[in-house]
Amino acid sequence: SQNFSRQYGNAFDNAFSKVLKSGANYFVVGRDQASAGALSQATVTRLNANGVLQWTRRLDIASVWNDAILTSNGSLLLVGHTLPADATNKSIIGLITAAGVFTYVNTYDAPGRESLLRIVRNPVPQSASFPYYVVGLQAQAGAATVDDVILINMSETAGFNWKKLYSSSANDQFYRDFEALSNGDLLLSGAYGNSVIFRADNVGNMIGGATTGSLGTFNDVYPRSTGGGFYAVGSGGVAPNIQVYLVKFDNDLINLWETRISGLTAVSQVWEDAPNGWIYVVGTGIFNGKSRAIVIRLIETGDEATQEWAKFLDNGETLYNGG
What are 129-150's pLDDT values in tens digits? Predict the structure, then answer.
């Protein structure tokens, strides 16, 4: 792959949300706006190693792809929902080849507002015929703005093995990150009152969890490749007093330490460069007078992490919208 910086899209509202390496090329998941004021339409784009556009496929309905994963044969399996995100919308699952051909796009309609948000391939699934697990949301019956969490076990052809509904009186939002562990267990993180990480087995039974009162939600969890345990990032507070934290857990989800990351107004991702001991965090903050996407590198020092640098892209822009 090569280093490149390019712009894509039309004169209206366009955005990329996820990039996946596919051989020497890239799948990019995003959305386009066909005309001013129109609802977005979900897109899949193919770029070569130099970032040159190969093709874009856009659904012909108002929609969004929320997540995607490469299959064993090089296709892309996607999950999302139609728009507007209200009681009339539907969930979507699609499969597209590297040549840009949709094998299928299926819609599913449960009562009320719904969405499929994250998908993982489980290395130890309940059944080898159903290796994919999807987490999403459904509005609680009689409470249009209150969420319940759903978990689906499915095949590459979108055949369902089972679907579970986790229901409570709370506004359940532990769907913000979803991880499959090497032993087949699953981590579902987000909010359940306070920030929360739940651990489930490969049939969807909850077997453990963790919470911290410092945060309102966990947005991403990274299972460490060496040494065990997890890093998690989240945020709490109300604007303009948002606080962003990096938290380290052991294998049993016991909180080992928390570090506040100053300067950020939101946080979306954490990962580790284990050989060098570096921790990377992606978020949004005000830098050079503008709200920008930013990458921060930290290193663990005792019972905390120390920031080494923060970097962002600056091409002389006068305004950022979304980062």
Answer: 999 999 999 999 888 889 999 9
Q: In the predicted model, is pLDDT for residue 323 greater than 70?
A: no
Residues 6+ apart with CB under 8 A from 131: 121, 122, 125, 155, 156
Give φ, ψ of 252 to 5 degrees.
-95, 15
What lies within 8 Å, CB to CB, of 222 at 6+ separation is 230, 231, 232, 270, 271, 272
Question: Is the peptide bond between 223 and the residue preceding it cis, with omega within 30 degrees of 0?
Answer: no
Q: Tokens 């986790």 appear where?
A: 166
Nearest Cα to Cα of residue 131 among 194, 180, 85: 180
Query: 68 or 303: whose pLDDT is higher?
Result: 68
Compute the mean pLDDT over every residue in the chain, rounded to the nearest whole number. 92
Return the sign of the alpha-carbon dihedral for residues 23, 28, 29, 33: negative
Other Cβ atoms within 10 Å of 296 Cβ, number: 25
Please count the residues of the chain.
323
pTM of the full structure: 0.92
More confident residue, 242 or 123: 123
Distance separating alpha carbons of residues 85 and 141, to the nearest angstrom:
16
Give the bridge partners for 290, in sequence order: 287
Residue 142: its pLDDT value, please? 84
**Cα dist. 22→73, 178, 197, 242, 309 in Å?**
11, 21, 30, 36, 30
Cα separation, 319 vs 205, whole angstroms: 46
- H and E: helices and strands count for the chain: 0, 24
Residue 198, C-beta contacts closer than 8 angstroms, at least 6 positions apart: 174, 187, 188, 189, 192, 206, 208, 209
d(CA 227, CA 256): 13
Which position has the token pair 């005792």? 302
